[in-house]
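Sample A.
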Amino acid sequence: MIQATPLIYIVDDDKSVRKSLKRLMKSAGLRAKTLASAEDFLNSGYQDDPGCLILDVRMPGLNGLDLQKQLTAAGSKLPIIFITAHEDERVFNAAMEVGAVAFLQKPFDDQTLLSAIHIAFEQLKKNLPGVNQ
């Protein structure tokens, strides 16, 4: 079996957030791909690589919760870490109810995000044997 190293998809409409998170992933020795919208993510061929999704809640077009629902309905096992600048208990509850790994309020600590990614990778390893960390 081919051993795959997970790819972290960073989906946020804010270019500076995408850039800083990609830099953080690189400094932690992780692979990352940035996308500006949920639609870009859906068109990215994400099924081809195991990984996790760092997903902004509020974006133009398809928002983060809608993307999560769409992925869940399609049977995706991709772990999701939500990030948001807007505190909303209803959105938090909805995201966690559908299986989000974490829900982080911007600005968040780098280590908090890296810990959430570690949890997502552990979840991924359970769902997809042969995935390296």
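Sample B, a different protein:
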Amino acid sequence: MMAMDKKIEKKIWTPKKIAVYSITAVFIIFVVYNFIFGDSSKKLNIELERINISNVERGPFQEFTPITGIIQPIETFKLDVSDGGRVVTKFVEEGAFLNEGDPIILLDNAQLRLSIIYNEANVFQQINNLRGTKLSFQQSKLDLQSRLLQSDRDIREQKRKYEVNRQLFEKGMISDNEYLDSKDQYEYLLDHKRLTMETYQQDSIFRVEQIKQLEISVNTLAGNLEITKHQLENLTVKAPIRGQLTSLNAEIGQSIGAGENVGQIDKVDSFKVRANIDEYWIVRVSPGQNGEFTFSDENYRLQVKTVFPQVTNGSFQVDMIFVDKLPQGIRRGQTVHIKLELGELTEALFIERGGFYQSTGGQWIFVVDPSGNFAVKRNIKLGRQNTQYYEVLEGLKVGEKVITSSYENYGDIEKLILK
């Protein structure tokens, strides 16, 4: 009798299946864990030698902006001709050093010379009129005084006759007509004297006013003559200051109009700096602010003296003077690079300037983790700035490290892995 085969049951959980399912489960758990708890930010591997890392520091902070200035003479005078004419003489050439009052060119103006002759003739004529009027007044005065003396003599004589006749009339020794004739004559002489006195007074007033007007006219004409003579003197153009004649635009025979510029003279024993500043700073710059530049390995201080508010091609100009000392050997036209101070020296939190600003506008920065293995993006707020540092207002603390080099190739990366 044959023995029956025993049925072997097939195992469901074989070691192989257990291993496969275990690996799958672990992978799924790993994916889910990383999805829920893992770092999903965009990352980029960066080599340390290709970036700049700076410390966040606290200390004295001075806001300033770099500007470029040109050395210029402290004073410059334009040689403008007040009265035109033709150049007849050149006393010096361009580049000459002059003392105040030295002649430069001589002009000739025929019309001005004729005007002087005409004014002189008017002055002499008016002076003669004044003399004639005074002489006539004196003669009239003497004549009236003589007439008054004669009138007084006649009155005294007629008065005696009148008083004698009055006494005789009262005694009945003369007629009425003879008495009345002497009386009328006496009263006539009194009235005549009174009229003569009034005439003398009116004539005196008129003559005095006439003489006053003539004197005013003489003075006016004499003043005009002096002005004309001064204009004639101005035909000799002279140096207004001691300095160098840096330009002269005049040749023999050249006609120059009134008000035309013929050159320039500079005071060369001292200098100033004329600087251009970006119009962004126009509300921050005012007289009295200081600046500094280096020349021949030595620092020199400057101070803003004049601010020219007109904006041209996006910039405005200022004049700056030397505060303590003048650099030896400096020359007109030299360029100097100035640090213009825009505020007081204060305590502040700051970081070094760098290329990151062009990409972020100062609104965020990569902050290095204390481990030094990576850096993450963080929002910040910057304030003042100078050529070396940015002031930090928010987002960073003293001792932290930040990446200040350019972010140009980082795109929207949020985390940098440092290697």
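Observation for Sample B: The chain has four helices and 22 strands.
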